[in-house]
Design a protein that fits this description.
single chain, alpha+beta, Creatine Amidinohydrolase, Chain A, domain 1, Creatine Amidinohydrolase, 2 domains, 10-stranded mixed sheet, 6-stranded mixed sheet, 12 helices, 18 strands
Length: about 400
């Protein structure tokens, strides 16, 4: 089941969804300001070897294998794309862009276009393999604008929040299908198929589906794995997951733990209760202006309960994996970022509470959490799935 209010449902059923002209104008104005700051006369926005999402943010075209955009305020954008069979759809989806096939020499055509325009100092956003970057560097004064782009993606517009809510609903659908469909005898690959089948039919695509299955009596893992194995589900297992379905470049992220044909053992009940308490404690201090120390202090409930964590406790999300990336006192995620939370940041709070020492073959662990939005006075849930202790086969609806 996909639960969306009518405004979001209208976005979902478009042939190809797009943001408003006002939203693209906002983004382009922000890029123009960044160019002025860096003294650039032109800006390159890059997707290369299927890496880099800035082209989609600027034009609406997801980029696929290779897309190179030339941006200058007040001038129509030019884009070179590969491959030829991608070219016609790129022409259709890219907003306000003069789109060309790159002819398998896209960076050379890019240089020709920049020289035709008289470019001197060129900013660049996105990854580019070294041999291509060296060609640009030999012809122009190049400057990275990636830091500015990351900053722009960290603070979401209202339209972006709507798309994240759709990504959250798609992710919720995957979780609901996983809980309902898990049963003894299925392997982890089949569990992943349950997740994907729930949202692909609605236009969602997979970002991640990390699923861990282990015996409570003798756990062999304590955090969801990044690739599914052939291990089969058995009675007495615990299942924990981290699921993100994309709505184009906007994914939800939801993390839950549930149990197969058994109540949680006392240890797993304590782990789960601590994870829920940590989520509540951390989310309770979130608002515009929250310091990193306040978040870290709130997470102390984990160590006070005699446990630790494995995965990051919290991270920025939505268009990338952003700061603030925070662990706990017993498992720091590097130095605390020098920042405070800001309104319309979107964050994942995800306590992966584990034992400090092995319990049998491994430490034991659980995971809960989800994507939220920072507001002026608190936070907004972007997911609808409930939290709690669930059983495999249970019908849990958003």
């Amino acid at each position: 089941m996909l639960v969306l209010e009518p405004r979001l449902q209208a976005i979902l059923i478009q042939e190809y969804p797009c943001f408003s002209e006002a939203e693209y104008a906002r983004r382009h104005q922000a890029l123009a300001q960044s160019m002025t700051k860096h003294g650039c006369d032109h800006l390159l926005v890059i997707t290369d070897h299927r890496a880099g999402n800035a082209v989609q943010w600027v034009t609406g075209w997801p980029g696929t294998n290779e897309a190179y955009v030339v941006f200058k305020p007040g001038v129509q954008m030019t884009m070179f794309v590969e491959w030829f069979n991608h070219f016609s759809l790129a022409q259709k989806l890219a907003r306000g862009v003069d789109t060309h096939w790159g002819e398998h020499r896209g960076v050379d055509k890019l240089i020709e276009e920049l020289k035709r325009r008289g470019a001197k100092r060129v900013g660049i956003i996105g990854p580019l393999v070294p041999n291509k970057y060296k060609k640009l560097e030999a012809a122009f004064d190049m400057v990275s604008v990636d830091t500015d782009y990351v900053r722009l993606r960290m603070i979401k517009s209202e339209e972006e929040i709507d798309w994240l809510k759709i990504g959250a609903a798609l992710s919720d659908a995957g979780l609901a299908a996983l809980i309902a469909g898990t049963r003894p005898g299925l392997n982890e690959r089949e569990l992943a198929a349950l997740v994907e089948n729930a949202y692909v039919k609605h236009g969602g695509t997979t970002m991640i589906h990390y699923i861990g299955v282990t015996a409570m009596a003798n756990p062999h893992i304590f955090v969801p794995t990044q690739y599914p194995s052939t291990r089969t589900v058995a009675s007495g297992d615990v299942v924990f997951c981290e699921l993100s379905a994309f709505w184009w470049d906007y994914a939800g992220q939801i993390l839950r733990t549930f149990f197969v044909d058994a109540e949680p053992t006392p240890l797993y009940r304590d782990l789960h209760a601590t994870a829920e308490a940590a989520f509540d404690a951390v989310s309770a201090v979130i608002h515009h202006g929250t310091t990193m120390e306040e978040i870290l202090n709130a997470a102390d409930v984990v160590e006070e309960s005699g446990f630790t964590i494995c995965d990051d406790l919290m991270h920025g999300f939505g268009g990338g994996y952003f700061q603030p990336i925070i662990g706990s006192r017993s498992r720091p995620a590097g130095p605390l970022p020098k920042m405070t939370l800001e309104e319309n940041m979107t964050l994942v709070v995800q306590p992966n509470v584990t034992t400090v020492k092995p319990v049998g073959a491994s430490r034991a662990g659980v995971q809960v959490g989800e994507l939220i939005r920072v507001t002026r006075t608190g936070f907004e849930k972007l997911h609808r799935m409930p939290r709690g202790v669930f059983r495999a086969g249970e019908r849990v609806l958003p």
